[in-house]
Amino acid sequence: MNQANPETPLRHGRVTSPASRGSVVIDLGLLGDWQVNEMEGGKNFPALVAGPFPPPYETDSASVAPPADGYILSGGKTDARDCVNFTQEEMSKKLNRPFTWPLLNVTPGQILEIKWAYTAPHTTRGYRWLITKDGWDPKQRITRAQLESQPFFEDFYTQVPYYSHSAELKAKVNHSVKLPASKKGHHVIVLMWIVANTGNAFYQAFDVDFK
């Protein structure tokens, strides 16, 4: 697999609306679409180690090692895709000009509509959403300590085992999430598309401003 080849076909999937950090860095010319489609890392995050996916989904493929702290937003990728993990200071140095991550204006408790584009719509277990803690430090990269310990929303298919229900466990082009009701100001949201029949999830990140 030649990941440096601009003719490399698109793979897997990414959010196309609203704008993710991946969309921002594509617009900046730092990454290609196919690289943002491959923000792929272990699916049992925020666990630290590889292993079985938790019950009642332990018949799903076991997770590979989840992303390390500081590389969460890229799904653990440390190549050019590391730029989605950058703080605003790091990105300003990279671009040699002042930079701030664009913010998506949201309201506490609102329903956020998500649209995906898939190029390899894997057998899907579901989607998990995490968000930064109150008082998180935007001058630091996102780590487990910067995130709330529990997801604020999950949308999982319940059919098990996955190999008896593959036709039903479809990746969702459109889905909705109810945002936390108590957040204010700038936060980072991490969205995971969790695959049933591999050890990976695909990671997408959003900078939001709760008004």
Question: How would you describe this protein?
Answer:
The chain has 211 residues and is mainly beta. The protein has a single domain, classed as chitin-binding protein cbp21 (Coagulation Factor XIII, Chain A, domain 1, Distorted Sandwich). It has three helices and nine strands. It has helices at residues 21-27, 33-36, 88-95, and strands at 13-17, 40-42, 104-106, 111-118, 124-131, 153-156, 174-178, 185-195, 200-210. Strands 2, 3, 5, 6, 8 and 9 form a six-stranded mixed β-sheet that branches. A three-stranded antiparallel β-sheet has the order 1-4-7, with no helix packed on it. Residues 1-10 have low confidence and may be disordered.
Poorly predicted parts: 1-10
The largest sheet, given as strand count, sense and whether it forms a barrel, is: 6 strands, mixed
CATH homologous superfamily identity: chitin-binding protein cbp21
Helix content: under 10%
Per the CATH scheme, the topology name is Coagulation Factor XIII, Chain A, domain 1
CATH architecture identity:
Distorted Sandwich
Count of folded domains? 1
Helix/strand/pairing category: mainly beta
Question: What do the pLDDT scores average to?
Answer: 93
What's the helix count? Answer: 3
Strand content: 25-35%
Number of strands: 9
CATH class: Mainly Beta
C-alpha termini separation: 44 Å
Order of helices and strands: EHHEHEEEEEEE
Shape: globular
Radius of gyration: 16 Å
